Amino acid sequence: MLLAYCAGLIAVCTGLLIIATAVTIQNYWMLRSLFAEPPGKHEADRVDPVPSERSIRYDSAESASGDIEWTGPVTPYTPTNR
């Protein structure tokens, strides 16, 4: 009787150990995929940089020639030699 009880206890504990191992492995793979680098991240240094908006600098001391009206963005600029 004691031998059957011990065999049953060993079988139940072994089954629980197998289930706990399976759950632990599944959690490991889910966490690993969560913290893995997103696909394509290693290719980020090969991508050409996005061209920025072109800025036009002008000398604010010079008078404008003609009757042309500038409607674009204006960035005040003073040359470094003044």
Concise overview:
The protein is built from one helix and no strands.
Please provide a written account of the structure.
By secondary structure, this protein is mainly α. It has a domain at about 1-35. About 40% of the residues lie in helices and about 0% in strands. It contains one helix and no strands. It has one helix at about 1-35. About 0% of the residues are buried. The mean pLDDT is about 75.
What's the helix and strand layout?
Elements lengths: L1 H34 L47
Order of helices and strands: H
Report the mean per-residue pLDDT as an integer: 76
Gross morphology: rod-shaped
Biggest beta-sheet profile: none
Fraction of residues in helix: 40-55%
Strand percentage lies at: under 5%
> Structural class of the helices, strands and pairings?
mainly alpha
Give the uncertain stretches in residue-range form.
Answer: none
Total of helices: 1
- Report Rg: 36 Å
What is the CA–CA distance across the termini? 105 Å
Number of strands: 0
Q: Key terms for this structure?
A:
mainly alpha, 1 helix
